[in-house]
């Protein structure tokens, strides 16, 4: 497993967790374009986990969902 903090701070939070079979994005605080730029590679996102709905964690949600079409889970469903 590999964990990469792509963005952290008040302007956006996004972390990538890569396993052998899945790529999981935690929060979408930056756009899909910015994610690919910062990773410097093309990537597919299988699952998007939103920890909470503050703007610095969801600002790029629309573009991330449109680009990668991941399964979307938020913190409320995770606790069920």
List keywords for this structure.
5 strands; 80 residues; globular; alpha/beta
Helix content: 25-40%
Q: How many angstroms separate the termini?
A: 25 Å
Counting copies of identical and different chains, the oligomeric state is single chain
Low-confidence region ranges: none
Count of alpha and pi helical runs: 4
Radius of gyration: 11 Å
For the largest beta sheet, what order do the strands appear in spatially?
A: 1-2-3-4-5
Strand content: 25-35%
Order of helices and strands: EEEHEHHEH
Number of strands: 5
Could you tell me the mean pLDDT?
92
Main sheet properties: 5 strands, mixed
| Overall shape | globular
Based on secondary structure, the structural category is alpha/beta
Written description of the protein model:
Helices cover 31% and strands 29% of the residues. By secondary structure, the chain is α/β, with parallel strands linked by helices. It has a 5-stranded mixed β-sheet. The longest helix is centred in the middle third of the chain and has 8 residues, at 32-39. It is globular and about 30 Å long.
SSE blueprint:
Elements: E1 2-7, E2 14-18, E3 23-26, H1 32-39, E4 47-50, H2 55-58, H3 61-68, E5 71-74, H4 75-79
Parallel strand pairs: 3-4, 4-5
Antiparallel strand pairs: 1-2, 2-3
């Amino acid at each position: 497993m590999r964990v990469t903090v792509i963005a952290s701070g008040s302007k956006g939070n996004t972390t990538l967790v890569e396993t052998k079979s899945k790529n999981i994005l935690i929060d979408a605080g930056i756009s899909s374009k910015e994610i690919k730029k910062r990773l410097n590679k093309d990537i597919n996102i299988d699952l998007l986990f939103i920890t909470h709905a503050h703007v610095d964690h969801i600002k790029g949600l629309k573009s991330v969902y449109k680009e990668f079409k991941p399964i979307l889970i938020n913190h409320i469903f995770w606790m069920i």
